[in-house]
């Protein structure tokens, strides 16, 4: 995996700043052209999900990202004591330091379980392309190692390079928009499960834009993630298999 470091300033904070939640907006990619064929990949909407059991996904983090126009929001995963994995499109135009909230369930409250770290040490895949949605992966290096506890834990990583999860049930999580009418991110962490489908089927809908390094999950029954969930984990049996990169259920495969 080829990556290039783009910013190197780091600081640390341990309490959430006051936020204007109406000004926090989800970071997401524009919708690629796709058809509404009867294979369970409808237009973006979030239904069929539910509130996560509090702190059942201790590897999940929330990212508050200063960008031109305000503060964007994305998800991420803890992969080591000093590394947070996320999507490149979440952090490729950051201005200053990203505020990383670990150990949260209600992202709008300063919960005693939370740790807030600010870092501008961001590494984006050198071959990231927003036009083709390829290599949409980045990681943030923390200024010092995080001490793990029951609320803050690294995610499990695959023990091999298997990339065919077709038919497996995957779980996605995040604080993204909880409905089509929502104007800001969800207060509480939500989860949704859906089956992974073959890239061949997915490519029919996305007009050949799906690459071998992508994974697609079916939106059959209206289940899906939504804007603001970008960068968060897609797991199979609590093992990270991909990063959420698009609200129409496309996942980046550069793990």
Automatic annotation (TrEMBL):
Signal peptide: 1-17
Domain Peptidase S1: 46-255
InterPro entries listed in its UniProt record: Peptidase_S1_PA (IPR009003), Peptidase_S1_PA_chymotrypsin (IPR043504), Peptidase_S1A (IPR001314), Trypsin_dom (IPR001254), TRYPSIN_HIS (IPR018114), TRYPSIN_SER (IPR033116)
GO biological process, one term: proteolysis
Recorded coiled-coil stretches: none
Keyword Zinc carried by entry: no
Domain of life: Eukaryota
Keyword Hydrolase: yes
Record SUPFAM superfamilies: Trypsin-like serine proteases
Molecular-function annotations in GO: serine-type endopeptidase activity
Keywords for the protein's UniProt record, in alphabetical order: Disulfide bond, Hydrolase, Protease, Serine protease, Signal
PANTHER family xrefs: ACROSIN-RELATED, HYALIN
Name assigned to this protein: Peptidase S1 domain-containing protein
């Amino acid at each position: 995996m080829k990556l290039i470091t783009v910013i190197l300033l780091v600081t640390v904070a341990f309490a959430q700043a006051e936020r204007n939640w109406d000004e926090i907006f989800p970071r997401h990619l524009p919708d690629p052209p796709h058809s509404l064929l009867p294979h369970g990949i409808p237009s973006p909407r979030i239904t069929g999900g539910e509130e996560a059991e509090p702190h059942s996904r201790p590897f999940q983090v929330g990212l508050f990202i200063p960008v031109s126009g305000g503060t964007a929001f994305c998800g991420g995963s803890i992969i080591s004591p000093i590394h947070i994995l996320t999507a490149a499109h979440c952090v490729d135009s950051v201005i200053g330091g990203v505020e990383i909230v670990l150990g949260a369930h209600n992202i709008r409250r300063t919960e005693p379980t939370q740790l807030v770290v600010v870092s501008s040490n961001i590494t984006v895949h050198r071959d990231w392309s927003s036009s083709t949605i390829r290599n949409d992966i980045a990681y943030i290096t923390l200024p010092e190692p995080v001490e793990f506890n029951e609320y803050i834990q690294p995610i499990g990583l695959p023990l091999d390079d298997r990339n065919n999860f077709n038919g497996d049930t995957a779980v996605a999580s995040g604080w993204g928009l909880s409905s089509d009418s929502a104007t800001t991110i969800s207060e509480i962490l939500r989860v949704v499960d859906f089956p992974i489908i073959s890239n061949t089927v997915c490519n029919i809908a996305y007009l050949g834009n799906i690459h071998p390094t992508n994974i697609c999950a079916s939106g059959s029954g209206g289940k899906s993630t939504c804007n603001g969930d970008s960068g968060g984990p897609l797991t199979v049996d609590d093992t990270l298999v991909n990063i959420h990169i698009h609200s129409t259920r496309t996942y980046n495969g550069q793990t």
